[in-house]
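debug: dumping io for the single-chain case to check the tokenizer round-trip. Nothing else runs in this session.
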Amino acid sequence: MESTTANIPSWLGVAASATLVLIAIAISWRERLGLGREVGIAAVRAFVQLAAVGALLLIVFDKGGLPAAFGWLAIMVGIAGTVAGRRASGIPQARHHAWWGIATAVVATMGVLLLLGVIDTTPRVVIPVGGMVVSTAMVTSGLALQRTVDVVTDQRPLIEARLALGLSPRDAFLQPYRTAVRTALVPAVDTTKVVGLISLPGAMTGLILAGVDPWDAIRYQIVVMYMLLGAAFMSAVLSARLAQRALFDDAERLVRI
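debug: decoded output
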């Protein structure tokens, strides 16, 4: 099958696409949503951040090697853990729980893919693929921690009643824990169910635009979906488990959040 490579937008094209941001700001102003300033700042930040990342990636790709790629992933994990932990500030050491959950998911997922030779051991592959794993793990970890706060707030009397009946903290919190994790994993599971039916995922779309044969793009996208699903489960479960332990003191009492 003959393939054609899509044209890459010029900087003039990038500037033209900013019209869509202006439309969003106009809609916000027209509907009095109060988001115009925030949208403008977000658009400028996205431009600056992506430009800076692009410049750094050129250095990493040319001179950094695999150690630099792993260092890049470590930085992303640190940032992701901070962002996810903010969703559950009421939980003691929430950021640490998010960091461990995300880091474990990234190490396990990337370790399997690299050791089995599923992806190439080059910075050009490790960084973007690892970035997808970090992003997914961050979202699910943040949702799991946020939902944990919600269920503790809503079900505190029930949890304390179970503790009073002699149940261990783990058993008393078992149902709320499962509720939190299930809720956090719904987006990942639903996305996997409808992949290809509602929209073409990012990795597959990028490969097709780059001129790769659709069947090759599909195989790569399947790998991506499976790795993201595994990362989501690992990050959500571990973050929620660590948060559960932090919610009880040495006397096995539920702390206030």
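debug: round-trip ok. The chain has one domain: 65-246.
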